[in-house]
Structure formats: C-alpha cells, structure tokens
Specification:
The complex is a heterotrimer of chains A (338), B (408) and C (141).
Chain A lengths: L3 E8 L3 E4 H8 L9 E4 L6 H14 L10 E5 L11 H8 L6 E5 L5 H15 L5 E7 L16 E8 L5 E13 L3 E2 L8 E2 L3 H23 L8 E4 L6 H9 L3 H4 L5 H4 L6 H12 L5 E5 L4 E11 L9 H6 L2 E2 L2 H10 L2
Parallel strand pairs in A: 2-14, 4-5, 4-6, 11-12
Antiparallel strand pairs in A: 1-7, 1-8, 2-3, 6-7, 8-13, 9-10, 12-13
Helix pairs in contact in A: 2-3
Chain B lengths: L23 E8 L10 H15 L11 E5 L11 H8 L6 E5 L5 H14 L5 E8 L6 H8 L15 H16 L3 H15 L13 H6 L2 E4 L1 E2 L9 E9 H4 L7 E10 L14 H14 L8 E3 L5 H10 L8 H6 L16 H5 L6 H14 L14 E8 L4 E8 L1
Parallel strand pairs in B: 2-3, 2-4, 9-10
Antiparallel strand pairs in B: 1-7, 1-8, 4-7, 5-6, 8-11, 10-11
Chain C lengths: L5 H6 L1 H4 L3 E5 L5 E2 L15 E5 L3 E10 L9 H7 L2 E8 L4 E5 L13 E12 L2 E10 L5
Antiparallel strand pairs in C: 1-2, 1-3, 4-5, 4-7, 5-6, 7-8
The chains are: A alpha/beta (338), B alpha/beta (408), C mainly beta (141).
Amino acid sequence: MATGISGYSSYIPRLRIKKEDYAKAWGSFQAAGVSEKSVMGFDEDILTAASKVSRRALESVPLAPAKVTRFALASTTAPYLEKLLSGTVLVNVGMPSSTFASDHTTSTRAGTEAFVSGIEHVKASPGGVAVVATADAPRASMWDPIEHPMGAGAAAFVLSSDNLIAEVEGYASFAMEHFGERFKPAGDETLHDLNVKKFFASSFTTCTTMACASLLKKLGTKPEDYAHVVIQQPDAKTPGSVAGKLMFNDAQMASGLVSVNLGDLGAASTTVGLVAALDAAKVGDRIIVISYGSGAGSDAISLKVVSDRKPVPSFKTQLEKKEYIDYIQYVKLKGALK
Amino acid sequence: MMCCWEPGAPVGRERIEGPDMRRVAIVGAGQSKYGEFPEKGIKELFFEAYKDMASSVDKNFDPKQIESAYVGNLGSGGFQLGNMSALVAEYVGLPYIHTVRVENACASGGYALVAAVMDVMSGAHKMVLAGGVEKMTDVSGIKQKYWLGVSGDTEYERLAGTTFAGLYALIAHRHMHEFGTKREHLSMVAVKNHKNGAQNPKAQFQREIQMEQAMKAPIVAYPLNLFDCCSTTDGASSLLVCDAEIAKQFTDTPIYVTGFGTSSDYLAIHDRISTVTLEGTKRASQHAYKMAGLTAKDIQLAEVHDCFTIAELLAYEDLGFCEKGKAGQFIEEGHTKIDGDKPVNASGGLKSKGHPIGSTGTGQAYEMFNQLRGTVQKPTRQVKGIEKGLVHNVGGSGGTVSVSIMER
Amino acid sequence: MAHVSVPMYWRTIPQRYKMVGQKCKKCGAVNFPPKGVCKYCNASSEFDELQLSGKGKVHTFVLIGAGGAPPEFAEQMKAGGSYPVAIVELAEGPKVIGQMTDVNPKDVKMGMPVKAELKKIYTEEGVIRYGFKFAPDQEGK
C-alpha cells in the first residue's frame, strides 16, 4: 500500500533583510550564495509558525484535524528546552489529545527525523494519518559570521495512504559520532561553531553520501532519475559542493534551493525545500531529500509525484509577500529573542 | 433578537421615593491642590482636603457629628489595599465611625458621594463625609502603568496591548468614522479646559494651550495624542453631606443633591452594544434627571469626566446635551465654553485640573458646590447666577458611571 | 506586570488558542468571550459550544504609541514600534478586541477583513502566553 504526502504547506515570515544591509553593518555578508533572508516577527516563534503550517497542510487535503493519529514537531530553536512543545500545536490545530505527539529538537536533521517518524507510523497503522511540522529560526551571536545566513521558515506535511500528491518510495539514514562542529552545550545560550571547515565538510559529505548511496541502492534508482534534489542548506553553496560527489547537477537542485532567498532554515531547510520542489514538480517526477544535522547524521528520502494537485497558498506566493527591514530593526527583533 | 437594551426598552429600575426618604444637602466642600507632591501621602492629602472642607462650613461645624465616611480610592499604589478608609478617617480625627472605601475605578468619588447621599436619605445617619483621595506619583513608571491598566478588562483589553489611552482611542476612531468628528474637535476640548484650568489655583496645570499645540502633540494611541490625555495626579477632596432638615444650622446656602443615578456597563468595550456610546452615562443621567424632576435642558453647568478629550464629547451626547454624533458640532459652536449656553468643565476638567482617581468625583462636586454658591476662588471662572448643576464621573472606559444633580 | 496567573491564563486556552464561542440555547446569539448569562437575551445560561472561524472585519482600531503600551508590551514596542489594536466584528456576530499582526500599521483600515492567527502575546513568570491576534485576510492568504 502506497504511503506519502497527501497535503503540505509552507510559511515564510514576511519580514526580510537583504545582504547589502548586512554588509553595511559588518563590512561583508558571509553567507555564500544567499542574497536575502527571512526574519521572524516579534510576536512569532516556531510554535506559532508550526501551528499555522499544520493547520494549512490539513486544509490542503482537506482533512479534519480530528482524523490525525500521529504528530511530529521539529525545530532547533524551540522556546523551551523542557516542555512538551507539541501540546501547543495539538490544541491550536484541534488534533486529538490521544495523538502520539513527539518533539524533535537537537539538530538540523530534526525535520527529516520527524518526517521519517511520520511515514513509519502511516506504514504501520492502517488508516493512520500523520502531521509533520517543521519550523525553525536559527540564531547565533551577532558577532559570529555563522549568524549571517540564518533565516526563518516552516513547512508541514500530511502523511497518509489516501489521496496522495507524492508517494514516499523509501528512506535511508546514516548517523555517527562527530562532535565539535556546530553545537550548543546545555545551559549555554550561544550556538558554537568551531569553524574547522574541512572537518565540517568531511562530515557533511560523509553523512549525506552514505545516506543517499544507501537509499539509491535499496531502491535501485540512479542520480539522473531525480528531477528535483533537495539537500540541507546551511548556505546556498554547500549543497552544490556535495552534489558533484553525489552525481547531481545544478539544474536538479534549482527548484529546492530556497536558501538563496531565505537563508539557512535549520531543521526546516530540507522540508521547505521539499515544498518548493513539490510546487515545481510534474506528475512522474522523482524528488530526493537529503538532510544533515551536526553531531552528526543524515536522512535521505525518495519521493515520486503522483498528482498535479498543488496546495494554496503556494511557496512562491509567500516568497513574494515581503517587507524589507534594515539591520537595526533586525537586531532589535533577533536581539529581543536573545 | 430583542436585546433588553434596544431603543424603546424600559430603562432599568424605578427609583424608590416616599415619605420616609430624607432630602440631602451638602454644607461644606474642600479640595487639596491637585498635582505631584512627593512630600504628601494619602493621609496628608486627605487631611488637607478635610481642613479645606471644614473651613468652608459657614458656621457650627462639629466633627463629632460626623457618623460615616465614604472614601473613594482606587488603591494608591497598593500599599494599603485593606482598610484605608479607617486609616484616613482616624488621621483626621474621626475614629470609631462607619467608614467604607468605595472603589469603582475613576468613578470611586462619584460613587462615594452617592453612598453618602443614600446613607442620609435612608435615615440611617444625619451627617456624613464623602471624600476621595489618590496618590499616583509615588510609584515607578512601570508600576504606575500597572495601576492605570487594571480598570479596563484585564484579560482581553489589557492583554491586547492597550491602556486607557488605547481604549478611548478605539472609541474616538469609531466616532470619527461614524459621525465625521474631526481631530480639531478633540483639541477644542483640550484648549477650552486648559483655558478654564488656567483660572483654577488648585489645578495641576494652570496654563493655556493653543490649538496648534494640541493638534500636533506626539501620538500616544492614534488618533489620541499627548494633549488628548489627562495626567496622573495626587489629590484629595472632601464633602460634608447632611440631612436637609439640619442643613441651615451650618449655612444659609446649602446645596441640595436633588437627584442621582448610577449605572454599570459591560466592562470590555467590545461587549457593549455601541462602541460610541457610554450606556452607563445615558442611564445614570436618565435616573438622575428623573429623580430630580429635570431634563438635560435644565442643567446650567456640568462637570464631566474628560479623562480623554473624546470622553467629554461623548458626555455631551450621552448626558443629552446634544444628539448622538453631534458633539463635534456642539463644541465647535461654542455652547460649552464658560460663557456659552451649556458651560462644561468650568474647573478645567480632568484634563487641566488633574485626575487623582479616587478624588475626582468628589472634586467635581466641590467645584459645583462653589459654582452654585458663587464662591469660586477666581471670579473669572465663576459661572454666574446658576442654580442647577450636574456632576458626571466615569469609571475606566465606562464600566461604572455616577451622575449627581446639585441644586441651590 | 499584568498579574494574570498561570492557571488563570490556562483556563482561557479554548478561547485564546481555538476561539471556542458559546451559542445561546434560548436566543441563538453567539457570545465570545464567554459569559455566565447570554449578554444578548440576558435570560439564559445554557449554551452550545461553537468553533468560531476566526474571520471578521475591523470595527475600529488604534495605533498604540510608546506612551500607550502596558509594561508587558514595552519590549515589543521598542523592538517594532507602534502596533495596531482593533475591535473586530467576528463573522458569527460578537465583537472582540485583539492586537493586529502581520501587517504594517499604516495599512490598517476600517472595515478591513481579518483572520485570527496564533501568536505570542507576552511572557509572564517565564511562561509564554500564546493567543489569537488578527492578521489581514487576503484571498489566497
């Protein structure tokens, strides 16, 4: 029985900042390939964003919230380090209290972790419906160049075995110990990045290629079978550096390269990228999603588009609904969020 | 569906009147200066007003005759939320009497007067003190905003991000939208009241302002600007209320409270039938007129609750001085100037005089007492030859309203 | 601070997170926020729960400036400047006050169609209080 995505939605905060405004403040903008990025408003956070996309994803099917049997929430910048985050979204969206709800939080791989959890549930439970919500607004010290690419966004999916837009053909993972690249110790407010570039690059390459290779082997598919390739985007150039090794080209990556206009979306990077790719895809297209989270691990997911149904509002509509702020305003907003 | 308050529906309860109800007089009135007084607390302010009241009694004042004290007070920064009426009463030499703190936000004073009137009217006591006091400038900015923000609906109105300026601005904006009331009309209230207050030696602000200033002041809550909003103030006032039968022992010109009315309303503006009417003012004044056997036309001076300029415009309409929606025109035509045919806020109103929350209502009656007796401190502010006045005191954004009619 | 206790805020989650209203069994009018007795007929305290759509129109609005913000909104004011607050006439009948969001203050208009969104209201005692705010309701959102 085929299982996959029967509804989806993305949310892009309307506030944006251009790289030029950043460069005015710091002399340069150190986010390769990013031309502007999105910023959460003062009264939003990943829970309000996750609520919004979950609700819209259900409406896009359409499916009543009461039918949901599994909920998975992913973010690296949740407002609490300890508190059941899913509770807020469950109640706001109207999903049953009996839903098995899980929070996924400690790396940017959390988005696909949640997605895979959702698919596993649907495969194992006849009639099961999973909502997977990913929302993130990564941040670091204003003094740290790693802050430059960090943006904000959210995406949610309804996973089931009915009324599919895209079938999930399979998934594979790779996880290993690889400390010391990007991390936040408990009790520490600041995100650390030891900035040992080669060390990070090797981990990124290893995890993504291992997960991807394992998946292609399992499915018997080849790189050229994929019309759309969505790889984790800490900036807009890193995915390209791995693509070559994975035998994907720029054309395949184009639809999902959301970081160019939105920056690094953390745990929502590959999921927002997936939404963009789904919006662009045609029936019969294959999509591959490859995430990465430092510490370290990757998931690779293969999908096949089976319907031309496109939820509204589209990713593009939201991308275009924007209001620019300057760097001072940006600091006030992000500084206030600490 | 038929609401109990649709036009034509009967207004509230009939007032009980009968041979056992006593007539009520005011034979003395006092007020402290209104302003910012770091050296005075609520006890000292209350005493200042009390002494002023005692000196205004023409003859035979004897504090031992005072049997009750109703003290209007919101909370004075919270330090003596419990039992403050006992505290201020004993401070001024009135231990062992019936004391009550009356709290209905900014209408506390007005309701303290009504409580005193009802006390005497019932025959329970013959001589009663009605007063009010508030100390607002002792607390830090943040605490002050807390106290200013607890009389609207806290759950929804405050947590939507508004203080009273915001709530009255919502009313003003709708009034402008529905009736074409203009920015100028709001500022006319401020200019008129400052002109009157400049002649009031006890007012917090004793300087005139110009239209241009009033129109262009910084925005506090659009459309209201700084000059549309009254200030925070320290102050107290005190009235000696007694059975009319003994009034002539104390003065040849007692002032009689011939009618009063009170009404509550839905606390949150969004719960009310109309955003541009204070139902509380309408009903309270209708009760008062009925009791006094008068109509709006008979009133020769009104001290109304202009916590914000829009509030005075609403008062013109809801007290029946002009039709709903026509308040802008009413002030533009000059009716409510001191020398107009319907003078309003000869004292300078809350805008210029200040607004020490618990004291405002009884302070309005203090002004009316002097206006009706021709004993206003500065003759330039005296409205001549009047016999029928009305005081109007609103709690918060209209959750409670008290109206009393005072006659010579 | 506003002194709204955690349990007090928690009790209002059906209204804050979900906009659950009350339909009077006697006169059919919808009360929101809830009342003990229906405020329309003043004659019944029996209601059916009704999920409101969150849609409505701006009945009146104010732009809160620096001097007009309660202390718990001071930081929001400093970070973002003036914010709009509206009384919204909901599609089901009742009016309710709410802050506006996702909108430039200068674009707010009388009669503007709006829709409720979950947003952060404020934080007290370290607990984030979420609740509805109103965003412009454009076609295709």
